[in-house]
Design brief:
Number of strands: 19
Radius of gyration: 31 Å
Strand content: 5-15%
Structural class: alpha+beta
Distance between the termini: 62 Å
Amino acid sequence: MALPPAKRALERVAQVAGAQANLPIELAAQKDRAFLWGAAAVHPMQALETSFRRVVRAAEEHGGDPARQRERESAAMGEYFFFEASSVRLLGVGREEGFDGMPYPLPDDAMRHARHEWYAAREALAAGGGGAARIDATRRALERVAQPFLPPENPAGAVVPNVAQARLLIAAAAPAPAVLANLKQAITLLGAAVEGDASVQTFYIIEPFYLQRLLVGFRVRSRHQLTDDQVASASGALTATLNRQQWLTDWLAHAMIDLERVVMNPDVQPHVRFFLKGGRALAYLFGRPQDGANDWDSQVLIDPDLPADEWYAVYRKVSNRLLVALMRKKAEFYSLLNLNAAPLIALPLPVVVPADPFADAAPDPGTMPETPAEDSALDDEEMPYSRSCKAELIDIGMPRRDTIECREQWTQLAQDIIRPTEGMPIPGFAYYIDEYLTMVREFFAGEPRAQAKAHKRIERLAELFAHDGAAIAILAAYLRIPNGILQIAAQPVEAFAASQLPPARQPLQFALIELLDQFATAYEMELEPLLAAEFAEYFIEWMPQAEALSQHNALARFGLSVDAAPMADAIGFGQWLSDRLQAHVAGRAALIATQREAIDALIRALYAASVFDQHSELELQMAIGGSLAAALHAQYEHARGVTLEPVGKVTIGLYYTDRATDPATAIELVKPLLAPFVDPQPGALFQMDDSHPGRLLLFAANVEIIEPFGPYQPLVIEIVARRVRVRPLISFIWGFPVLSLRDLIIEYQMRAAHVVEFAMRGVLRRTARSLTDMLMKVRQ
């Protein structure tokens, strides 16, 4: 039997991609699947049985490449849970339940209902009564199945032949036995349409995020074991070959707009965001959507500050609606592919696929698990090795609620989704400036993964800075820089940029402004005007030597455009300066270590005071947070190999839940308790600054010299009154009230969300990760 045109078209895509990747690729059966971990050894409601987390974390710690780490993680998870590939389902919705006004929201449900009606009609006819009514019900059920393949829902405007034939059979008048036969044949024809030429896959097995995907499944075969790189090459060639078709690009662009409409339903709209990301989004940012290539990556964000029950209620609605929408897109693709099969069938072999001009965008979060192979697919003596590969169409990622990625992205993007070209929702310029600056900083920091694309990313950042849209983002960054820094650095930065050739001036000046903003925010210089002034003086002193200090690899410098080279040197200088700021924090930590006896006495005096006496239920709760809390937990747990933020400052939180509580009043309650420890007491180590509402700052009473900066009085203790939704849990370590590990992890996530400077964000992320490891390794 001859293959339908759509199948022949996809087979041709496999041949063309196989020639490009130099691998034999074949079309696979399209199966909708949900990948998840099924409870086995541990039940989800066993609150105290969490030791499996420690086992899995330990398995990940052996190092090696990411692929090997994933293998070890999966093997460890497999000791407690079953890896399952099941049919896709709506979360919290039964098979016979409707959703959003749809009685049968998923095609398989509608198809199953139609089959049940057909069997009921056959039984009614055999029993001699009620057959006509059941036949009518079967016809209505089958028309419901056919609906997504018909205009106006079908964007192709033409009905696929087998769907058209099925509708004729559904409507055909005939004696009852013949009608049953017609309807059975219609079920077969519509079943093929529902199976379609693509598949929807949902991944619940990835730790940081959920993933929903529309793809065309293929398999790559070989006489030898296949590597991850070979599979990635096959998938890349398949995706590029298919996505170069203009009809598909046009349809997928409209699909993104449709998906945003689905996500931004009025009942969840304040708490969710949807946007296109990756290379496609960058093409839209520059007003060149026609230059985009490959699949369409998108992202959904849900407000991480929602209470857990509300967050997951929003997640269920959004996730279920997206699944229904992707099933609709799968039906649309089936119709469109049949209409446009001829150009694919006629693709010449081999085809040279143009390089993606926006391939320098942020990398994919990682290789997704492949679809498990059917046993029969491996029964081949000539080519016994087989792995799944794919042509990706639509990816929708969604960070999980408790992840640092969710908080960071919500903070960055909740108010910065723009639509500069054709209404496509994408991140704003500030997001891309931060992303590319980070990726260039990774190169200067010597990270291996950043080397290959460094040249292109430097040029792309210069292109971003040269764009009119970047000026607004840079103005916002400029306005965030503390006045103490601007008064010293603004004019020298402008003059330094003006000394360059005209094409280099704006990218260089914008990069220096961005660096000043990032450093000031990361090191909280708005609280320390003396540190800010020392930093600004140091910045402008060494800025003219940026090229020498950047330690710029000559190979990277070679070939850079005239507008990008000075900017690249400035970013390399920023990496040099960042190393010295990190050393400065370590120096401050050493100073605090010498003052710990006095600091410990101050904390005990605060806590022992009647206002914090835990014998009574009071609105105000005191706890140590930040780097000192992390260090205390690590000491108590005898944690080894942890990477924590140095204790460069002591943070004490005063937590309250009542909206009526005045943070200034809370601070006033504390101030008298500090009198014995601050000037003008003889021998006092601290000076108090109460000029910040809801905050008390204790600076060193003596001027200190902490390299690389000159003499100034560093901030030692910060006391902050904070309103919280729920009081944090407290751990008592060596007699000190300390934020619990869980609450401390959240605190670090929130700090990281507001810091984009490469080195400090890395410190905060690694600290959060180490604290998470400590929490998971608590023995039960």
